[in-house]
Amino acid sequence: MAQSFWSFWRCRRGNFAIITALASPVLLLGMGGVVNYSLAFSARSDLQAAADAAALGAARELYLANTKPELLQQAVEAMVGANLGADADSVQTRVSLGNPSEGTAANVRVLSQVTVTLSKKIDAALPMPLFAEKFGDLAVTAVARVAGGGRICMIALAEDGNKVVNMSGNAKILAESCAVYSDSVAKSGVAVSQRAYLSSELTCSAGGYTGSELNYDPLPLTDCPAVKDPLVSRVAAVPSRCDYDKLSIKGENKDLYGGVFCGDTKITGGSHVVMRPGTYVFWDGKLRVDQKSTLTGDGVSLVFLGKKAGLEIKNDTEIALSASQSGAMAGILLYADRDSNKTRKFKIESSNARKMVGTIYLPNDKLTIGGDKDGDGTCDPDPLTGVTEGLLGCKAEVGDYSEWTAIVADQVEVTSGAKLVLNTDYDGSTVPVPAGIGPVGRNIALVK
Q1: How far is CA 109 from the centre of its chain?
Q2: What letter does residue 169 receive in the DSSP assignment?
Q3: Which residue, among 268, 272, 276, 267, has the nearest Cα to 254 in the 3D structure?
């Protein structure tokens, strides 16, 4: 009997097929396990990476007070979408806020922790018993925590170069309940000269400063740690078509509605323009307001995209704007993309721009408040027309009627005659504070 068995075993004429048939279920099960495990591992890795990035980005949103859970949820969903692309449609996102010692209580006044949970159902590529039970429902969690206190209402992001915060003549910046930061390591990263005056809760320079005790209250701290761009996770959608092309409004009373404005947009000749709530995308062109025109609007976000984008608000105009209260640009009044490799011009010279509620975000560009660089009391000639506006003086009033205003720009300049007020009445505003320019000295890290 034994001899017959070994003869059968050693025979190669047909038993291979029998053995293969007997082993096939095991082989298929093993192959299915390898494929399915690989699929599950890859999906989990992608989910975890997206959750980590979203948690860190959301933690930056806690830099400013008054972050609302529903708006943070929208911001996180946008970050997850940016990381996962089309796969994000099948992912459920949950965001909770709180303090490490108080779980996830969203009503805690000072929040310091963000928990992002992503879940997704995946199907087996090959049949495998119990796959759905063990791997079909994936869920990952990332927890990011911030530490520190205080508020920052201005950040000049340029890492080198003198005068990245620059004030001259009798310019004023009044930021008495918040901090002004310069990331430049240059010896005069913050420069306040002549009779200019910078008053803040704290002025902090990664390098040094120029000016005397008469120019500051209090004197700046030096060698401060640089503050990272708090809104780096925010990305504006690139449009695919134009709603308006080289729009010109002259001597009209007109309502505008959100959309894509291509080429230069001009509001001139004493026009009175009201922006209805929405997002206004200025694509490869400037928005220019001049000649005693007025521009007003609540619930608006002005987005500037492309190399030719820019803003020019001349001295004899009146501006009153407040940022969107919901959506991807909630709390952001002015937004410029980071793709341009050339510094674009964003100038607010208005003698009355006292209502500018929201965040002005120009990460690669220079913001100029005022239009009297030579300090002679009259506005500098317009390089476009050669005309000098504001012949009776070149005063600029920006922000003092705003509940809050925050600025994140590559560089900030305030010229003679201009006064910039940065208020921080977050609780008194219906405009949510979006992100990262609040607490001084905060560290952000993943803790799970």
Answers
A1: 22
A2: T
A3: 272
Handedness of CA 228, 231, 234, 240 (dihedral sign): negative
pLDDT tens, 28-63?
A: 455 545 555 677 677 788 889 988 888 887 777 665
The structure tokens 């997850």 sit at 80
Measuring CA to CA, which residue among 275, 269, 221 is closest to residue 248?
A: 269
Handedness of CA 336, 340, 341, 344 (dihedral sign): negative
Q: In the chain, count of helices (H) and strands (E)?
A: 4, 29
Tell me the chain's radius of gyration from C-alpha atoms. Answer: 29
Residue 271 to residue 387: CA distance in whole angstroms: 19
Residue 33 sits at φ, ψ, to 5 deg, of -60, -45
The owner of tokens 């490490």 is: 100
Q: Which residues pair with 332 in a beta bridge?
A: 359
Q: Which of 154, 68, 151 is nearest to 406 (CA)?
A: 154
| Residue 215 Cα distances to 203, 206, 376, 411, angstroms | 12, 19, 19, 19
Q: What is the pLDDT of residues 117-135, one digit of tens each?
A: 988 887 665 455 554 555 5
According to DSSP, residue 134 is labeled: I
Q: How far apart are CA 156 and CA 200, in angstroms?
A: 15
Backbone angles phi, psi at 44, to 5 degrees: -65, -40
Q: How far apart are CA 23 and CA 39, in angstroms?
A: 24
With vertex at residue 235, the alpha carbon angle to CA 230 and CA 238, rounded to the nearest 5 degrees, is 160
CB atoms within 10 A of CB 23: 11
